[in-house]
Inverse folding.
């Protein structure tokens, strides 16, 4: 498989009047095309910073990031985000929200519009197209947010704790949807989360970061013996709890140091 | 007994399926009715007492006027073709005042949002100007803009502008950072971010500033008319006071109360429309 994202010697330092903070340090990672990578770590370890760097929203202090062989300079829509909240604009209809990315990128054509409409139909939002977000349930809102991301046909999808604001059962159900939709589209995904089971259930590989400054502590391919890749059946796999224990052991020290 | 009749009515029309629901509806209607009747009674009581006190000379009519004299004054103004002239002049000045205050204020707020360091620089000056009782600028405006409507509108503008800038700018700056991040991830320019996320997201703030500005503009316009004018309700009141015609003063107070309420309700209606669209649902 070809390489989708390559991070070489990445470091990032925040400056404030109080001093400088090393958010992440010396990170080397290669993510294959179509891979679903999970990044877990204690809070404040620079997980989200890493995503902002991949999206080109922030420039790394040191090192180099390549997405599909091209160095990342500023955000150009190669990578699309899914954030903690759906961020739907309440004054726009469902369709208007789904078209937001295309509109901003000036790629709104009859073809891209038709494709977005087809996505809405495919994910059961056809009758809701002309409604406003307030009339939708939490799960539907996140699906609209996902379609807004897919509509711009990104090569990479960056998921920044997209399920953290949901209650547990909605979270399980949306994980199924998001996983199947993104895997079907064959998009390379990077998921940042503090939820260890979520990372194991969704990802092909999980990277554990240390406390600040974040470094790669462990890099574990997740191989589960189950018949399909849906997060729910992956949760049933016998190896699931083994990975859970392994990842927790990698994180334990950092988490305890944070609490002390 | 009335309650019984209402309950049967609700049951017979099918608006209520059960006796319990019908009693609830009857109770709710009676409550609304009671409130309205009490409000009406207060209004009639106020004017009735006022009229009686004047009619039986319990107080000097010269000082307190009376509802019937106010009504006669309105008819007299109407017959002379002056009623709509005075009401119109003041209303128009107020509308120009608060609309231009809101537009100029929003535009200035946008500039300050665009250049945050400009905001940092002017921030203390905004605070000084906001604290200043703007009415003291009246004498300056008379000399700068003359004794016409320009001074009056300047007065209305001076009173509402600074608050608008501060309120709307704070609305612009408090747009959800995740939304800004989302726009940036699509490669949005600053102008696109403003047009697509910041400005429409701040409509509720702008409309509530508009609502405050309506009240402030009335104050500015009346003060302006006290200072310079030859027409308008403020002029009518100050002229009435000068010639010791309390009927005229009371009449302009009454007309002002009606005009100001109508305009406030119109803006409140606009606010409702905007809020209906911007209402945040479950997320």
């Amino acid at each position: 498989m070809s390489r989708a994202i390559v991070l070489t010697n990445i470091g990032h330092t925040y400056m404030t009047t109080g001093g400088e903070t090393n958010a992440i340090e010396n990170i080397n990672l290669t993510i294959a095309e179509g891979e679903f990578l999970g990044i877990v770590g204690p809070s404040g370890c620079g997980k989200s910073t890493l995503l902002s760097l991949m999206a080109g929203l922030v420039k790394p202090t040191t090192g180099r990031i390549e997405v599909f062989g091209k160095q990342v300079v500023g955000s150009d829509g190669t990578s699309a985000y899914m954030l903690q909240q759906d961020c739907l604009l309440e004054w726009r209809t469902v369709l208007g929200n789904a078209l937001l990315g295309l509109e901003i990128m000036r790629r709104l054509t009859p073809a891209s519009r038709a494709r977005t409409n087809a996505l809405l139909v495919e994910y059961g939002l056809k009758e809701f197209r002309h409604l406003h977000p307030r009339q939708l349930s939490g799960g539907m809102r996140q699906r609209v947010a996902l379609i807004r991301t897919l509509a711009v046909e990104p090569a990479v999808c960056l998921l920044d704790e997209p399920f953290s604001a949901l209650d547990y059962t909605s979270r399980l159900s949306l994980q199924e949807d998001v996983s199947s939709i993104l895997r079907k589209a064959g998009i390379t995904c990077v998921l940042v989360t503090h939820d260890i089971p979520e990372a194991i259930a969704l990802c092909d590989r999980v990277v554990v970061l240390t406390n600040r400054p974040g470094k790669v502590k462990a890099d574990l391919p997740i191989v589960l013996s189950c018949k399909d890749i849906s997060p729910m059946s992956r949760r049933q796999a016998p190896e699931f709890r083994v990975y859970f224990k392994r990842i927790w052991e990698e994180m334990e020290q950092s988490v305890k140091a944070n609490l002390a | 007994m009335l309650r019984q009749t209402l309950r049967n009515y609700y049951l017979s029309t099918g608006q209520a399926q059960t006796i319990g629901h019908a009693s609830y509806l009857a109770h709710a209607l009676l409550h609304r009715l009671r409130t309205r009747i009490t409000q009406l009674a207060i209004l009639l009581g106020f004017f009735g007492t006022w009229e009686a006190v004047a009619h039986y000379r319990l107080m000097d009519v010269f000082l307190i006027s009376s509802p019937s004299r106010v009504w006669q004054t309105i008819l007299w103004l109407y017959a002379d073709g002056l009623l709509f002239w005075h009401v119109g002049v003041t209303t128009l000045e107020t509308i120009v005042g608060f609309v231009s205050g809101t537009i100029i204020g929003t535009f200035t707020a946008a500039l300050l949002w665009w250049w945050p360091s400009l905001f940092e620089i002017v921030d203390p000056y905004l605070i000084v100007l906001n604290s200043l009782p703007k009415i003291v600028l009246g004498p300056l405006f008379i000399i700068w803009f003359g004794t016409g409507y320009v001074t009056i509108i300047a007065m209305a503008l001076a009173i509402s502008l600074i608050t608008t800038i501060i309120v709307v700018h704070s609305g612009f700056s408090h747009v959800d950072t995740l939304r800004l991040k989302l726009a940036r991830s699509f490669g949005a320019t600053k102008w696109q971010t403003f047009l697509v996320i910041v400005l429409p997201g701040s409509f509720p703030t702008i409309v509530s500033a508009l609502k405050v500005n309506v009240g402030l503009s009335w104050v500015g316009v009346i003060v302006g008319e006290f200072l310079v004018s030859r027409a308008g309700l403020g002029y009518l009141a100050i002229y009435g006071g000068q010639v010791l015609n309390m009927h005229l003063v009371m009449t302009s107070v009454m007309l002002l109360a009606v005009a100001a309420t109508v305009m406030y309700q119109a803006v409140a209606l606009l606010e409702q429309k905007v809020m209906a669209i911007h209402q945040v649902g479950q997320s």
